[in-house]
Amino acid sequence: MAVILAVVAGLRRTTPPSTATAPSPQAQPAPAPAPAPAEPDQPFLNVEGTQLSGSDARGRRLWDLKATSLQVDRTKNIVTMIDVSGQLFENEKPALAFKAPTATFFATSRDVQLSGGVFGRTPDGRTLRAPVVRWDHRNAIFVASGGVTVTQPGMIIRADRLTSDAAMRRPKFTGNISVQVTQ
User: How many separate domains does the chain show?
Assistant: First the structure.
């Protein structure tokens, strides 16, 4: 995350007058037309094919996101990603791999929201499906909502909401919970 913010901050810098060089008096090209000001709803930065990672205060990786495109909106302080795949990590080890049509990184809170139909899989084969999954950076948990389905050996669990650690070792289901035994 620090790298992305450094790049964005670097794009806003201008060359100080003391280091600018004067053009040579010979054949000067016509000045380029000034770029039109960005419209308020337009992204500040649009990048194709990228990766964004988040870490805790000790520098341990918490999540990675890869996307086909990324847009930075500096007025809202968010990064929006399209066609996303990634991982949540626990103790530097992959805990939950996922795919989603979109992801939004909220720079102020450092939360990440996946949306549009999220599919996830743990290394031991449990699966998660939900319309929305939000990583809560401050509490190091994720919340899946909008109708959640978790499939694991011997059962399928459905609920309105799931709150869990990254590895889904301590899941808490709430709202309209149903358990279907499959074996």
Answer: 1
